[in-house]
Known about the structure:
Number of strands: 6
Order of helices and strands: EEEEEEH
Distance between the termini: 29 Å
Radius of gyration: 14 Å
Shape: globular
Amino acid sequence: MTVKLIRMWSGEDVIADIIEETTDSIIITDPIVAVPSQQQGQIGFAPWSPLLSKGKGIEVTKKYVVYEAEPNPDIIEQYNTMFGKISKPTKKLIL
């Protein structure tokens, strides 16, 4: 599992699991997009393509991708929780 932040040419910040990558495209599953929250300074997440079947791969042409990057560890943890994927905590629970 490779959870990445994908900045699209349209300006969207998509968080998704990249399952395959070629020279021309990437195949992702469970894509979500960051959206402003009603609380000041907070963000929420919504499905990037709400009509897409859950867990199915979608091929994205790389010409529409500005960059791929590592998301904040808290975002990865929240993403894994949303999609029921096993993740190890990034924060120490016992001091």
